[in-house]
Amino acid sequence: MAGGRVNVNVGVLGHIDSGKTALARALSTTASTAAFDRPPQSRARGVTLDLGFSSFSVPLPARLRPALPAPPPATGAGPEPRLQVTLVDCPGHASLIRTVIGGAQIIDLMMLVIDVTKGMQTQSAECLVIGQIACQKLVVVLNKIDLLAEGKRQAAIDKMTKKMQKTLENTKFRGAPIIPVAAKPGGPEAPETEAPQGISELIELLTLQISIPTRDSSGPFLMSVDHCFSIKGQGTVMTGTILSGSISLGDSVEIPALKVVKKVKSMQVFHTPVTTAMQGDRLGICVTQFDPKLLERGLVCAPESLHIIHAALISVEKIPYFRGPLQTKAKFHITVGHETVMGRLMFFSPAPDSFDHEPVLDAFDFSREYLFQEQYLCKDLAPAATDSGQTNEKAGQATDGHCPRQQWALVEFEKPVTCPQLCLVIGSRLDADIHANTCRLAFHGILLHGLEDKNYAESLLPRLRVYKLKHKHGLVDRVIDDYNVIGRSLFKKETNIQLFVGLKVDLSTGELGVIDSAFGQSGKFKIHIPGGLSPESKKMLLPTVKKRSRAGPGEVAEQKEGAEQREPAHHVTLSLSFKRYVFDTHKRMVQSP
């Protein structure tokens, strides 16, 4: 809250040419330096290329006044509080989706602008997905109703309203209000004398829908900067939205990506000078002796409150509209704040007995054990168990289609990023064909732990207890005595069996054995059975004598005709199961006690 105004950020999102900028212009009374496609590139191309900011204000509704903090006694009643609505005009072109993602992370309510003559389009759908991730409330605006034939206008609006209601039915925005407007009757070239239609009704609807988000002035100052420019004789202005904490005139701020600290010379909220501002406010900060070309967009914070990270542990949730699996080792475009970099992922889940545990979204627990996954587990992709009860490791390690309530990923960034803990993370495939009718947004999550050390693979990852379950199967070759047998078919000939000495194996007859030593050079090994073989097991393992038949045409007889071969009467199988921790530098094999 700055200068007696409560600020709420409303995103204006939609497909290209749906009239978002015209709508922002029709609603606004105050514009920022980058509003309404003012940059030369936007004017030349006739499309929005960057985030634009403008605002309007209305008297603060009575229903919202109880949420306001009480004014200090010394200040008295003060001016009548007003509700300031900051409009965040996002570009609609598919190639600029990363800018939209950055903009969506600072909004409290979203206006989805639909061209009433075209309905939902590809980028409309992507904006709806972003809205479901980033904000809690939605208003659908059916724009360009002036293009509908007057006699059939209401019928066409009703038909599109029903279509949009059906689209929203399976989203968190089910039942969201839908309102028709004509932000710029006659189109971009029409004279300004043409009055917009439905704008006052839209302002009334927004006032009804807006709720004051919880704002907290405590904690370290953090601001998401979206524009940076110089003013001759004044200095460099950084404009953005305060994500946390508060700031006052004369405070020092840091640009962490550049490791530069500057003192705040002056501050403005939409051209109005202020001395303080807090979380949620739209703010311009003026500093001196700073080249604006060094910071197009990024973060500004209290000195030494943010650090550069090279990797992160995140909680992950797949976006259901994304086609195909999320594979371990795959690369995605990772967006944190206004930064988008490539990152490689490794997915992991709770141990199977913890699949139903309550998700924890505010911290990462290094004391727990986690199960490595070849891909993110979801019901349509979770592998079914095989006849032996084991799952296909390459497809994932869930059984019976049962998926954990929470999953995680280690994200390794191709270049370092600056971001706070618990920030929103969105993964996408921005290199996909923008003309294909597919969702490019793959997953979203929360950054639970940032890895600041450049050598995190040696310093921190060994603390991450992610394991792979390994299962090997073999056969009992023959009995030595009541307490020892020879096994085969569990290892390859070249395997160093010494590494497995001491590991427990289960016999299909119920006994528990321990690998004692290698036996010969062919991959066979000796198993000691501390409890001894049962009489039934010994009977099953008694050798029988079989005669080799004559070799068939084209076959080579391994033994002479009539040679005898001694084999157990029944096959007794061996099962070896163990864990191997992914980041254990010693590659040890661990079994449960």
Mean pLDDT: 85
Classify the beta-strand content into a percent band.
35-45%
The biggest beta sheet is recorded as:
14 strands, mixed
Distance between the termini: 59 Å
Shape: elongated
- Count of helices? 8
Structural class by secondary-structure content: mainly beta
Short description:
With 593 residues, the protein is mainly β.
Question: What can you see in these coordinates?
Answer:
- It is a single chain.
- The chain is mostly beta strands and 593 residues long.
- 12% of the residues lie in helices and 36% in strands.
- It is built from eight helices and 33 strands.
- Strands 18, 19, 20, 21, 22, 23, 24, 25, 26, 27, 28, 29, 32 and 33 form a 14-stranded mixed sheet that branches. Strands 2-3-4-1-5-6-7 form a seven-stranded mixed sheet, with helices on both faces. A six-stranded antiparallel sheet has the order 14-13-16-9-8-17, with no helix packed on it.
- Strand 13 (266-269) and strand 14 form a beta hairpin.
- The protein is elongated and about 105 Å long.
- Residues 36-49, 382-398 and 554-563 have low confidence and may be disordered.
Write the layout of secondary structure elements.
Blueprint: E1 5-14, H1 20-27, E2 30-31, H2 40-45, E3 52-59, E4 82-89, H3 97-104, E5 109-115, H4 122-134, E6 137-143, H5 153-168, E7 178-180, H6 199-209, E8 222-231, E9 235-244, E10 246-248, E11 252-255, E12 260-263, E13 266-269, E14 272-273, E15 276-278, E16 282-287, E17 298-301, E18 308-318, E19 331-336, E20 339-350, E21 370-373, E22 407-418, E23 424-428, E24 441-451, H7 456-459, E25 466-481, E26 484-488, E27 504-507, E28 512-519, E29 524-528, H8 535-541, E30 543-547, E31 564-568, E32 573-581, E33 589-590
Parallel strand pairs: 1-4, 1-5, 5-6, 6-7, 21-25
Antiparallel strand pairs: 2-3, 3-4, 8-9, 8-17, 9-16, 10-15, 11-12, 13-14, 13-16, 18-22, 18-24, 19-20, 19-23, 20-21, 20-22, 23-24, 25-26, 25-32, 26-29, 27-28, 27-32, 28-29, 30-31, 32-33
Helix pairs in contact: 3-4
